[in-house]
Amino acid sequence: MKTYHVKQKLRFGGERFEIYDAADQLAYQAAGSFMQIPKAFTVSRADGQQIASIQKEVLTFLPRFEVTLVNGSSFWIKKKLTFLRDRYELTNFDLTVEGNFWDLDFRLLDNRGNLVAEISKELFHLSSHYNISILDENYEDLVISLVIAIDYVEAMEASNS
């Protein structure tokens, strides 16, 4: 099992995330584009090797974000039309989400029901902080990218409200 701590860094010129391992060493980083439409994020390992990109699709009625992993696979996060509370849907995603997805306290399960990862958001911080436990290392890049994408979706929706 691997554990990570995600910290959002607020800075002029775009958002940045740093993801630290259990030994408090930088393991991943994500950087948002500055002055680019549509806004995009690049997720990389500490050595600079890109693992994923996240981009908002333009010309859609409801917000839709694509996460593309370096291996060529991709999935989408899209907002569903509701009146009471924001609801989102993951498509082309090979894991099941269990728990409170948008309050960021949830688990990811594979198609056999095995636990793959647990994600929880820490409260009472000025910027976003998440704790991630990954039990199946085959999904490590996907889980890290998903957490960054979720925070990106939340930030975009908050700024549009």
Descriptive notes:
- This protein has 161 residues and is mostly beta strands.
- Helices cover 13% and strands 47% of the residues.
- It has one domain (2-160): Porin, CATH 2.40.160.
- It is built from 1 helix and 12 strands; from the N terminus they run E-E-E-E-E-E-E-E-E-E-E-E-H.
- It has a 12-stranded antiparallel sheet with strand order 8-7-6-5-4-3-2-1-12-11-10-9, covered by helices on one side.
- A hairpin with a 5-residue loop joins strand 10 and strand 11.
- The radius of gyration is 15 Å and the shape is globular.
- The chain starts with a strand and ends with a helix.
- The model has no long low-confidence stretch (mean pLDDT 82).
- It comes from Streptococcus massiliensis.
| Unreliably modeled segments | none
Number of strands: 12
User: What would the average pLDDT be, to the nearest integer?
Assistant: 82
Count of domain modules = 1
Query: What CATH architecture label applies?
Result: Beta Barrel
- Give the strand line-up of the largest sheet: 8-7-6-5-4-3-2-1-12-11-10-9
- CATH fold assignment: Porin
SSE ordering: EEEEEEEEEEEEH
Based on Cα principal axes, name the global outline: globular
Family: Belongs to the LOR family.
Pfam families: LOR
Protein name: Protein of uncharacterized function (DUF567)
